[in-house]
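Anyone able to model this chain together with zinc ion?
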Amino acid sequence: MTRIGAIEAGGTKFVCGYGDETGRIIDRVSFPTERPEATMANVLAYFEDKQVEAIGVGSFGPIDINPESPTYGYVTTTPKPGWNGFDFLGAMKKKFDVPYGWDTDVNAAAFGEAKWGAAQGLDSCVYYTIGTGVGVGVYVEGKPVHGLVHPEGGHIITRRHPEDTFEGFCPYHSDCLEGVAAGPALEKRWKVKGSELSVDHPAWEMEAYYIGQAVTNTILLLSPKKIILGGGVMHQLQLFPLIREEVRKQLNGYVSAEEIASGLDSYIVPPGLGDNAGLSGSLALGLAALER
Ligand code: ADP
Ligand code: ZN
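re: yes, here you go
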């Protein structure tokens, strides 16, 4: 058995674990994200006795994932106290001299879903997390997409729902996708936590209107073979049929693939790896680094 370490570095919590080359997770722990010194002390202590052969990190961003860059492995422009410009991979490498995989948390999740989850066997998929923020991971032709920096699909521009008077909460754009559709938007708009809204509340139709736009644009722009919707808000499973309906309406028959014409139920899906998508994806990144 090969022991691979995995870190799902989230803005609210960190999950550390290890598993094997089949994607099986053997152990995991979780702790809140504090300032980097305190958080990294927890991470380093966890891996102290685990004897992992490689470590994969899927991190909240923005992060530097360009291997040619002098700040490769750093967290870049986050407002999170202490993390702006923090050398994440450097702090790991000082302690454990193993191969590292390093990507955004959502690219990791897309990669993990393609390897072991809902997009298994496919060479492309897009992974959305609708949680405290909105993030989008893109996996195309067998690789996570990096591009200039990395995709930031959570901040795409949305068309407003005609009945939505909430101004949006994104500090940069107010009413981008994240600003109107992430968990905090639900809570600020309806004055109650998303998890406490009844399943037939009008909130979900509005939510599906926004997520449906994002999914529609994703289909038009990237033509992925699967779209996976995860994160806390997507625990509201009644959203899935509403989103599929919205996508059907917005595409209006334009894209002729069978998967879209008659297969939306198996095309727009929850993560096959459930809430482990991020950690399993990080494990997959670690495994890929070892194989390189
Ligand atoms: P994070 O994005 O911080 O990694 P989550 O994916 O769990 O974590 O997302 C947390 C957000 O999702 C919060 O805004 C929370 O209110 C919302 N949320 C969590 N569970 C539910 C639920 N069952 N229904 C609606 N919203 C939820
Ligand atoms: Zn934004």
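The first strand starts at residue 4 and ends at 9.
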